[in-house]
Amino acid sequence: MTDKPSEDSSISDEAWQKFVQDAERDQRAAPKEPSARARMVTERLRQQDARGEEPPGWRTGPAWQEMNGRAARRRKVWSALGVLLAVGVAVIALKPSAVLPGGWGSEPAGPPASPLAPETSRPSGAPADAAGLPTRQRPFTGSPADRWASGAAAIEVPKAKAVGGVSAERIEAALRRTKEFVVASNLDREVLYGAEPKTALGLVDPLQKDYLADLRSALRHPTVKNDPTWTFTRFDPDEVELVGTEVKVRGRMTVEPGDTAGKALIRADYTFVYPLAKAGGGTEISRAIVRRIVEVDVSDPAKYQGTDGRIWVYAIDGEISNDDCRLGDGIIRPQFQADLMSGPESSGEAFDPYDRSRELNGAEEDCGTVSRT
């Protein structure tokens, strides 16, 4: 396009140079077609906004009277294999600096995003995509969690009032202990690195003997059917290290009447985002996303038996996203770009782990696909 015309051309050098400059300017100004991923994200958000309806709720676990019954636990582990591999190829093509020495996002990030207000009800849809690539200094860049609150302070206890025949005072105490359990299970730094979750175990009503026995057995000898990551977030410190001091948290805690008079049910629904790098100073940042739903029974002590100062775990459900699907070893193992080609094949329809507008999928799937981390 910029080759000079032949010597016998009647076009002058000045006219040819003007023609080349005009063509280049027009090419830069031409509109660009959105990428396939941009079209996919736009369509997904449009469909979510259009639906508007809430999916049916879930409920698992025994009634309060079953004093030795174990709380139902389901684990759904998801992998980012297919989609993240495509994203990685696109990053290399469009931004080679992202994979050069120095790690992800060698360009400086913009100013920190403004924080979100606390979540007080079910969101209407998934959060919008965030721009940028994570670094050790800014590990949440490119994630909706960049605007979330951090740590235990993000778990706000609602104002207590009498519910289902249970006094406000008893509800308040149960809410506080439920928060302690969620924090001890998912935010305690030593537990995250594989230590025994003594604080969390100590909060469970000792009358739940079978449940506690299962938890302790899972911690000592994890199996596919009894894996402690169903309840506790745990990583292998020989493989990965937590980047920085923050874990981002988003969710809410609610109270509703129980199945019978004299009972109330606390529902704590939170998503945790953990930034990780490979142990030994790795530069690539990966994020593990864990959503927990913990239900706690609260009862009128005049009608039901229970231990003061403890909680009765009615049910625990959850999803673990961006895990390599080695089930049954009691550890969450986040995926990095180098792992994508050697990991297990993903299956199932892709879903967004940041979408808190949906209920958890009840299917028992070993691996799936997430649309982003």
List keywords for this structure.
globular; alpha+beta; 373 residues; 16% strand
Structure, explained:
Keywords: Membrane, Transmembrane, Transmembrane helix. The chain crosses the membrane at residues 77-94. Residues 20-65, 105-146, 339-373 are annotated as: Disordered. It is a single chain. The chain is an alpha+beta fold and 373 residues long. It has one domain. 24% of the residues lie in helices and 16% in strands. Strands 1, 2, 3, 4, 5, 6 and 7 form a 7-stranded mixed β-sheet that branches. A hairpin with a 5-residue loop joins strand 4 (248-257) and strand 5.
Whole-Å distance between the termini? Answer: 42 Å
Q: Provide a count of the helices.
A: 7
Roughly what percent helix? Answer: 10-25%
Taking the sheet with the most strands, its summary is:
7 strands, mixed
Q: Quick check: average pLDDT? A: 78
Structural class: alpha+beta
Shape, please? Answer: globular
Poorly predicted parts: 28-42, 51-73, 75-108
Q: List the secondary-structure elements in sequence, H or E.
A: HHEHEHHHHEEEEE
Question: What does the secondary structure layout of this molecule look like, with pairings?
Answer:
Elements: H1 13-29, H2 36-51, E1 72-77, H3 81-94, E2 149-150, H4 168-186, H5 189-192, H6 198-203, H7 209-220, E3 240-242, E4 248-257, E5 263-278, E6 286-299, E7 312-321
Parallel strand pairs: 1-7
Antiparallel strand pairs: 2-4, 3-5, 4-5, 5-6, 6-7
Keywords: Membrane, Transmembrane, Transmembrane helix
